[in-house]
Amino acid sequence: MMTKTNKTMPEISGSIDLPEDLYLDIYRRMMIIRAFEEKVYDVYSRGIMPGLAHLYTGMEAVAVGVCVNLRTSDNITSTHRGHGHLLAKGGDPKRMLAELLGKKSGYNKGKGGSMHIVDMSLGILGANGIVGGGLGIATGAALSAKMEKSDRISVAFFGDGALNEGLYYEVSNMAALWQLPIVYVMENNHYGEYTSTDRSTSGTGPGRAEAMGIPAISVDGNDVLAVYQAAQWAIERTRNGDGPSFVECKTYRWRGHHMGDQGDTYGYRKQEEVEKWKQKCPINRLKKYLTQVKGVPGLVLENIEKDVQEQIDEAVEFAKSEPFADPSEVYKDVYA
Ligand SMILES: Cc1ncc(C[n+]2csc(CCOP(=O)(O)OP(=O)(O)O)c2C)c(N)n1
Ligand SMILES: [Mg+2]
After folding, report:
1. Atom of ligand 1 nearest to the CA of 192
2. Are 192 and 160 in contact (CB under 8 A)?
3. Is-contact 51 129, C-beta < 8 A?
4. For ligand 1, atom 13, which residue shows the shortest CA distance?
5. What is the DSSP letter of 294?
6. What DSSP character marks residue 58?
7. Cα 166 → chain centroid
8. Spans of all domains in the chain
9. 5 pLDDT exceeds 60?
10. Ligand 1 — pocket residues by CB below 6 A?
11. How many angstroms is it from 166 CA to the middle of ligand 1?
12. Which ligand places an atom closest to the C-alpha of 250?
């Protein structure tokens, strides 16, 4: 289907001109996610963190390339692998780590953990343990924005696995029919748990979106500048009233599906494949671009790395030192 906007679909360029501040902001946000996730891996491995987490390491370019194009008032919904989206939208690492460690000062007073973090003041409508669940919430938020004649939009991040959830077809049909202001961002990391997309999915995300009448683009999700350009196109047309858009970002998670999936435990991915993707590190790629093409001194980026590491180290110390909620509060705030 050709729509008016399909004709203006961007040619993704390998080199774009953004203000230096924006480049550095993108670099910092990606570093925050990397440092946060590797710290979570560390505290979990040392038995300091209860519960479970699904790490976003390796996928940083997707959340950041999209979220730097958003306003605070725009809504996002996230997934079970949610830390990256939350941090990219401005989530507070201290309150997130406090939540992961079950502390009272955490986002959900320590009762939600990794998969339930919400910050309405930042438009973060929640991580979500239900695969595909955020698609319904984000589409509902887009409907409410349209009814209120607001120019805020929704972004639903979801995985290749969620693409096969029935809910997606119900809500994307409504979004296309009613021209709702929503951008569907598919994070194709090539696996849903321990099953490769090749074994689970017929056709493609963009193909399915286009069948609904939703303009779609597919980009290298390890290239933050490509994600940025695709997201900018999608967000602009959606905010301008042209209806929903779809962006597929092809990427890879470096760590296991969750903390219990270590190394070759389940034998579903070859180590060479993981190593091959690590060579395509989205952060190194941006660093190389900024230093070699844009002439940013390496020291500037190294200072950001140092700064971010200190910020995350402090956040973990804060989370460790905070108290647990009183046991008498266990049933409080469970339903809102
Ligand atoms: C409705 C539902 N079905 C199954 C699960 C179990 N589950 C948790 S994560 C996951 C895989 C999701 O894959 P994908 O959407 O590709 O996200 P990724 O983990 O790759 O980021 C599954 C099947 C669930 N949480 N919710
Ligand atoms: Mg996946």
Report:
1. 13
2. yes
3. no
4. 192
5. S
6. T
7. 21
8. 18-320
9. no
10. 54, 80-81, 129-131, 159-162, 189, 191-193, 257
11. 13
12. 2
- 268 in Cβ contact with 192 (< 8 Å): no
**Residue 178, C-beta contacts closer than 8 angstroms, at least 6 positions apart:** 143, 146
For residue 79, how far is its CA from the centre of ligand 1 (angstroms)?
A: 9
Please state the pTM of the whole predicted model: 0.97
pLDDT digits (tens, 9 = 90+) for 87-139: 999 999 999 999 999 999 999 999 999 999 999 999 999 999 999 999 999 99
Residue bearing tokens 């290749």: 160
Q: Are 268 and 194 in contact (CB under 8 A)?
A: yes
Q: Which ligand number lies closest to the CA of residue 167?
A: 1
- State in words which class domain 18-320 has: alpha beta
Token pair listed for 229 = 């350009």
The Cα 196–Cα 206 span in angstroms is 18
User: Which pLDDT tens digit goes with each residue over 39-88?
Assistant: 999 999 999 999 899 999 999 999 999 999 999 999 999 999 999 999 99
Specify the residue for token string 């008032």: 73
- The two structure tokens encoding residue 17: 């001109």
Taking CA atoms only, the protein residue closest to ligand 1 atom 2 is: 131
What is the C-alpha to C-alpha distance for residues 293 and 206, in angstroms, rounded to an integer? 31
- Give the ligand at the shortest distance from the Cα of 194: 1
Q: For residue range 127-151, list pLDDT tens digits in order.
A: 999 999 999 999 999 999 999 999 9
- Going 167 to 170 to 171 to 172, the CA torsion angle's sign is positive
Residue nearest to atom 6 of ligand 1 (CA): 131
* Protein residue with its CA nearest to atom 3 in ligand 1: 131
Give me the torsion for CA of 205, 161, 202, 13, rounded to 10°.
Answer: 30
* First-to-last C-alpha distance (Å) of the chain: 43
What SS3 state is found at 189? coil
Nearest CA to ligand 1 atom 11: 192
Tell which one of 37, 83, 131, 248 to mutate to probe ligand 1, the residue whose CB is within 8 A of the most ligand atoms.
131
